[in-house]
Prior knowledge:
Largest sheet: 3 strands, parallel
Oligomer: single chain
Distance between the termini: 49 Å
Order of helices and strands: EHEHHHE
Number of helices: 4
Radius of gyration: 26 Å
Strand order of the largest sheet: 1-2-3
Strand content: 5-15%
Number of strands: 3
Amino acid sequence: xxxxxxxxxxxxxxxARLPELFNSMDPTPFFExxxxxxxxxxxxSWALEYPGDSRFRxxxxxxxxxxxxxxxxxxTGIHNYFNYKAVLAKRHVRTLLVEGRTALLIGLTFLxxxxxxxxxxxxxxxxxxxxxxxxxxIIGGWVAMWRPMQIFLYEWWPLVRRQRIYRRLGHxxxxxxxxxxxx
Length: 183
């Protein structure tokens, strides 16, 4: 069996100083900090351009290198942040699927009830008002199925894709180099 070679996509991020990468309002210990919103959005939007099974390499060019080796701090910060986002995305998918099953149960029950009442109204087929009411019930029953169909056909898979991307970013190769600060 031949193994599939996954491409490694490289992002180069230029910042003047290390604190610019992290959220300055985050009260948690340094190794578990939130990323700066702009840095997060930049990394995330870049990564979402690639397939969910891609591998990533993030190279951070620092204009001003700190005295200590910044690689462990930067790598741990990026890995922790995106691993946490992967956990949140997985939770969101699970919650959405529970909501979908609940909506499906409600929708099917309502559709069955509408169909049953429409069948009872079929006895009054000669009356125009009863025909309209019967058709309205059938349409209303199918409208109740809209939300579960929306969840199971369209909403879950972009979230799973985002979760995979976060997981891949949580395992990205991270390098830090001395570079020119952004202009």
